Amino acid sequence: MTWFKEILGRPAGHIPIGPFLKIPSIEVVEIIKMAGFDFVVFDAEHAMLSVSDLNVLVAMARALDLPPLVRVPNHDYGDMQRILDAGAAGILWPHVSNAEECRAVVRQASHPPLGTRGSGGGMRAGGWGISRDPDVNYLRDGRERVMKIPMIEEIGAVENAETILSVEGVDAVFIGPGDLSLTMGKKPTDPDVVAAVDRTFTIAKEKGVRVATLARGAADARAKAEQGYDFLMVGNDTGLLARAARALVDEIRG
Ligand code: 3PY
Ligand code: MG
């Protein structure tokens, strides 16, 4: 399996793009792979995805060599541990507001000595304990390959970005313009929101932390790639289906 970390910056000029997926369907995962996306983010924060759904979806994405990240619904340990043991290539935590919260989530996703993640090498992430592939190593993969990604998506978190992004073990940051704009009481396109996103981007770059955000369509994705983002989330399955379905009906009805 190709790990998410391996697709970053490879080949030069090809920024990795991935959609948020909200529909519990292996067919959707296949379609996204066929369409040419580089990775997927299963969205268990907003969508009705259970851990059992994620188990199947993650397995499908791995089989298709489409690195699967999972946005978990909260900062708890239990489900996150199961999702990592199911073979997710990384975790995104929504609404990480300060360095203490960031340290807590990164620690629980990291095996000792950095953190407290338990040992479950008999699961998929450990090749069921019998893999003959020398590249499968549960503890090494958990420590070095699994991406730990806090989301900065509140104005308070932007103010704390310097300390959040100094936390040991953070591999990347995702800047959420939607919730950020809500906490600022402004539209995502408002210059103050754009400035807050840019400020976080600059801090991440200064700290050497990879940085991602949501691109609103193709032109925005190209602009953000040009700006120096390391990877981008763009589109989601429900939105793509909804817009295509509505456009077809509108086209027929006039
Ligand atoms: C946000 O913009 O708030 C996100 O969580 C990205 O979808
Ligand atoms: Mg959000």
Automatic annotation (TrEMBL):
InterPro entries: Aldolase/citrate-lyase_domain, HpcH-HpaI_aldolase, Pyrv/PenolPyrv_kinase-like_dom, Pyrv_kinase-like_dom_sf. Gene3D superfamilies: Phosphoenolpyruvate-binding domains (3.20.20.60). Keywords: Lyase, Metal-binding. One of its GO terms (molecular function) is lyase activity. Residues 20-243 form the HpcH/HpaI aldolase/citrate lyase domain. It holds the Pfam family HpcH_HpaI. Belongs to the HpcH/HpaI aldolase family. PANTHER family: 2-KETO-3-DEOXY-L-RHAMNONATE ALDOLASE, PHOSPHOENOLPYRUVATE CARBOXYLASE FAMILY PROTEIN. This is HpcH/HpaI aldolase/citrate lyase family protein.
